[in-house]
Amino acid sequence: MLVLDASVAAAWIIGDQATDQTDELLVRARQATALVPALFRFETTNLVVTAERSGRMTRTQAASALELLAGDWIRVTDAGGGPSDWLALARRHQSANLSAYDAAYLAAAIGLGKPLATLDARLRLAAAAEGVEILPA
Questions:
Q1: Calpha distance 9→19 (Å, rounded)
Q2: Sheet hosting strand 74-76, strand order edge to edge
Q3: pTM of this structure
Q4: Does domain 2-135 match CATH 3.40.50.1010?
Q5: For the residues of 20-70, what is the DSSP string, one character each?
Q6: Distance (Å, whole) CA 131 – CA 123
Q7: How far apart (Å, rounded) are the C-alpha atoms in residues 35 and 86?
Q8: What ranges do the domains of the chain cover?
Q9: Residue 51 confidence (pLDDT) above 80
Q10: Rounded to an integer, what distance in angstroms lies between the CA atom of residue 68 and that of residue 84?
Q11: How far is it, in rounded angstroms, from Cα 129 to Cα 41?
């Protein structure tokens, strides 16, 4: 199991962002379970909308992306508390400019004691400071 951030999912669904590391994470996540806060669905759907509108993705690719991200191997979790917990984390990592959105992913990883898969530099800094395993390494 791992906690999955939308930045990694973006690399999976927007072709020019994929790397060998993100491809390996996709295989790993599909073999296990990827846990996400509820906002993951909103963020990834918005990524698809934005990519389609900008011409980086066709309607067919958008449908495929949504299908991939709706797989039963991605499960929504409420681990990591709620707004007051996210606010506390965002405050604690003010120097990293951690957003409340990213704090929700970090809180889930902390609450579950699972690695966090993210490509977001600020989230990676905060996760490292919290002692959370970060993927890709």
A1: 12
A2: 74-76, 34-36, 2-4, 116-117, 134-135
A3: 0.93
A4: yes
A5: HHHHHHHHHHHHS-EEE-THHHHHHHHHHHHHHHTTSS-HHHHHHHHHHHT
A6: 12
A7: 17
A8: 2-135
A9: yes
A10: 32
A11: 26
